[in-house]
Amino acid sequence: MHTCVNMNRPDSVGGTARRILNAQLRLMQSNAERAARDHSIKAIHDLRLAVRRFRAALWVFGELMPDILAKRLRRRLLVLNRRLGPIRDAQVWLDLVRWTMRKRKARLPPGFDLCVKSAEASCAVQLQALERILQSIPFREAQECSSQVSSDQPPGPFLAAKLLRAYKPLCRLKNKPLADLTAEKEHAFRRRCRRVRYLAEFTEPILGQPVQKLSRRLKRVANALGARHDAHVHARLLAEMTVPPDVLLLGVTCAKHEAQQEFVEAWGELTRPHFKKRVFKALQAAKRAGK
């Protein structure tokens, strides 16, 4: 007699995948609506985060759904996030310039007014494209992907094996993984760290500690890399100016140094031998539980 298997129950990989994908889909929709209303930095940031997390979920669970569908959607979401990136960068830069202007008690140096106007114009140009970008979000395809997940195996061993494969290569990197990296390779490294972080966050509710601690440490690394990226973007914008304001040069230099120090500390915490051993042991035990 044939038994109908419920692929959507929460204690299966199928149910877990649908729950995660649908949660990120709802976040994409709500943040897209918020971005369309107020164009705020937080709305754009939260939308990009939801898109990245949905892409990460497609990477994790893609083998459980039609391969072509998952790959096509991941590519479309990658293009979407790349289009949202310059908007967010322009907003953060304008926010920094205005904050510096407010904090400066003495008379602003020559050329600072021009810097403010340039930042405002750049942000306005980027925001003009926002409505078209928001209309291009593939909500229907995302819903279709979520509905086609198919697996009845337990989620713990599946996610443990995925996380183990993703975390191990990070741990094999040298103590200073950003040394001598080109901007393109550093961007790839940042994406890689984020992807492992999201996978840990997906796994955390099922496996508990020490995956919870791993998730927090990966988040700290990702945040430090994000701050480092912002500092690099700001330094590039300053370098394009004929006479960059000293007050901004000093602020960006300090931010770059602080981001680097935070990354070194966060990376050391993530790759500490005793911590790695605990994580590997827990993940290997969870992986074996499915055999």
What this model shows, in words?
With 291 residues, this protein is mainly α. It contains eleven helices and no strands. It has helices spanning 13-38, 41-61, 67-103, 112-128, 130-135, 139-147, 155-171, 183-207, 211-239, 246-270, 273-288. Helix 1 (13-38) packs antiparallel against helix 6 (139-147) and helix 7 packs antiparallel against helix 8 (183-207). The radius of gyration is 22 Å and the shape is globular. It starts with 12 loop residues before the first helix and ends with a helix. The model is unreliable at 1-9 (pLDDT under 50).
Q: Could you state the order of secondary-structure elements as H and E? A: HHHHHHHHHHH
| Share of helical residues | over 70%
Q: Tell me, what's the shape? A: globular
Radius of gyration: 22 Å
Strand coverage percent: under 5%
How many individual helices? 11
- What is the SS-derived class? mainly alpha
Largest sheet: none
Average pLDDT number: 87
For the record, give the distance between the C-alpha atoms at the N and C termini, rounded to a whole number.
Answer: 26 Å
